């Protein structure tokens, strides 16, 4: 049976970028949608979280329950004073309280604001050649977001909005790949966040649907919008060249730098798997005989862990280091939404699978509001996946940062077990305690927003030995903000015996 989640022997972790909308909402052109009052939305969202999110059951207890209740009361009071069209920030504040990357407010792609209050700002005429001259002349004074960016065939200038009072930036279309967007149209506005990294983004999709997104720059090249990645075209430092695919910023790249073959993987989107598999096939001998292999997962947005299966023979070793996060005893919280999710998402392929699924659904039906094991004693024991290591490369490094999330963290765990690999960088985002995401509407009327929540829980002992809010710790800690040439720095570290895994 194909089960999403950290089931024994199978690892499929889906992140928000890979999700479709709830199936009850037909997709199509952006249009006005029915709405509910903000205070009702806040209360409905809180109810859905308590009903469906296992992290609430396991972690919001004792003093933390009082903190949650106080936060909810304050947000409810704020919602009563907040215009309905501005409710998203209140909902997002409730979600942010949990610090779980797989818990989020889903924004419907079909939503437009019929009042016009959330339509893009007026057009701006920009001369690309003059803007390039400005960027080149002021490179040391630029904000990191200023420059020329691309999203597929859409090219945009992100420049300071001189007419705004809040130090914001606007993204102006240079070249469009979509009907309805012309050069000079404003595609987004970004405002630096006061007490956190990144920017608060107001973004209009290709169908002109409006979304509020947090935008964070990773490895100086990726503007990750969660969901979505914009790639930087200009200006780019020499040390960062070749780390993004110029056609699609989600796709992997491969280059030789110093003693290393460098593979940069910005996303585990299944649509990008063929690019990585092709790179590995065409460069198999080169990688096997390389002195160093560097796998750059900084900013990786997640998706499906299977995307990087082709890399595993170059990472794993016959002997293993002890795992910091053993994957055993996966459980699932029973609720009506969860029962519908299991019925839809767990696909039996044999008669035994069908019987196993029926027993799981029976356990959930008989234990409402409780955690039940994904597997039982009647299920055949799973066979751990066997990856045969190849002889080479000599040393492997996996680069991480705070944006390394979800499916990409599975690869980090594989590297941490290997005796020839080393994880270098910052702690990851920490999304594997609760994963395999589903989306539900959280009120019968509201269709602008839904709750995205993780369905499968790593084990019932959480938060003990948990990674939520902490991340997966690297072998060698590096603050990338202080490193002029991250790839060169890692290549040098690999040449030092001090970095050998213990």
Biggest β-sheet strands, sense, barrel: 8 strands, antiparallel, barrel
Indicate the CATH topology of the largest domain: 2-enoyl-CoA Hydratase, Chain A, domain 1
Strand order of the largest sheet: 4-5-6-7-8-9-10-11
Specify the CATH class of the largest domain.
Alpha Beta
Strand content: 15-25%
Q: List the total number of helices.
A: 11
The CATH homologous superfamily of the largest domain is termed 2-enoyl-CoA Hydratase, Chain A, domain 1
Q: What do the pLDDT scores average to?
A: 89
Count of domain modules? 3
Tell me, briefly, the overall form: globular
The number of distinct β-strands equals 21
Head-to-tail CA distance between termini:
37 Å
In short:
The protein has 502 residues and is an alpha+beta fold. Helices cover 24% and strands 22% of the residues. The chain has three domains: 5-104 and 434-457, Transcription Regulator spoIIAA; 128-234, no CATH class; 242-326 and 385-431 and 465-497, 2-enoyl-CoA Hydratase, Chain A, domain 1 (Alpha-Beta Complex).
């Amino acid at each position: 049976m194909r089960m999403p989640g950290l089931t024994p022997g199978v690892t499929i972790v889906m992140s928000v970028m890979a999700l479709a909308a709830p199936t009850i909402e037909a997709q199509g052109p952006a249009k006005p949608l029915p709405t509910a009052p903000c205070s009702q939305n806040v209360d409905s969202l809180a109810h859905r979280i308590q009903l469906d999110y296992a992290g609430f059951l396991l972690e919001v207890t004792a003093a933390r329950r009082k903190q949650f209740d106080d936060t909810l009361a304050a947000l409810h009071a704020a919602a009563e004073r907040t215009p309905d069209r501005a409710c998203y920030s209140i909902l997002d504040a409730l979600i942010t309280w949990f610090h779980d990357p797989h818990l989020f407010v889903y924004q419907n792609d079909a939503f437009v604001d019929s009042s016009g209050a959330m339509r893009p700002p007026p057009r701006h005429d920009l001369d690309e050649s003059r803007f390039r001259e400005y960027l080149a002349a002021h490179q040391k004074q630029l904000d990191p977001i200023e420059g020329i960016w691309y999203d597929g065939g859409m090219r945009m200038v992100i420049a300071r909005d001189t007419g705004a009072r809040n130090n914001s930036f606007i993204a102006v279309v240079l070249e469009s790949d979509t009907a309805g967007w012309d050069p000079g149209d404003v595609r987004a506005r970004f405002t630096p966040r006061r007490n956190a990294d990144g920017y608060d983004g107001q973004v209009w999709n290709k169908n002109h649907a409006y979304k509020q997104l947090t935008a964070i720059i990773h490895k100086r090249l990726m503007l990750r919008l969660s969901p979505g990645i914009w790639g930087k075209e200009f200006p780019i430092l020499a040390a960062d060249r070749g780390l993004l695919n110029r056609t699609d910023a989600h796709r992997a790249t491969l280059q030789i730098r110093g003693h290393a073959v460098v593979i940069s993987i910005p996303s585990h989107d299944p649509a990008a798997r063929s690019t990585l598999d092709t790179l590995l096939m065409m460069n198999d001998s080169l990688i096997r005989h390389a002195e160093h292999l560097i796998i750059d997962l900084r900013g990786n947005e997640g998706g499906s862990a299977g995307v990087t299966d082709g890399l595993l023979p170059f990472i794993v070793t016959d002997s293993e280091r002890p795992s910091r996060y053993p994957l055993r005893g996966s459980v699932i919280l029973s609720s009506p939404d969860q029962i519908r999710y299991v019925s839809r998402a767990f696909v039996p392929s044999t008669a035994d699978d069908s019987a196993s699924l029926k027993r799981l659904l029976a356990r959930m039906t008989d234990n409402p509001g409780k955690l039940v094991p994904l597997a039982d004693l009647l299920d055949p024991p799973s066979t751990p996946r066997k990856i045969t290591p190849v002889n080479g490369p000599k040393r492997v490094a996996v680069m991480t940062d705070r944006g390394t999330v979800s499916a990409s963290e599975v690869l980090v765990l594989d590297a941490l077990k290997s005796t020839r690999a080393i994880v270098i960088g910052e702690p990851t985002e920490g999304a594997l305690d609760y994963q395999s995401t589903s989306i539900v509407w959280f009120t019968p009327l509201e269709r602008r927003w839904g709750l995205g929540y993780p369905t499968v829980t790593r084990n019932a002992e959480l938060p003990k030995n948990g990674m939520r809010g902490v991340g997966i710790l690297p072998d060698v800690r590096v603050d990338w903000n202080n490193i002029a040439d991250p790839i060169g720095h890692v290549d040098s570290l690999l040449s030092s015996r001090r970095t050998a895994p213990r």
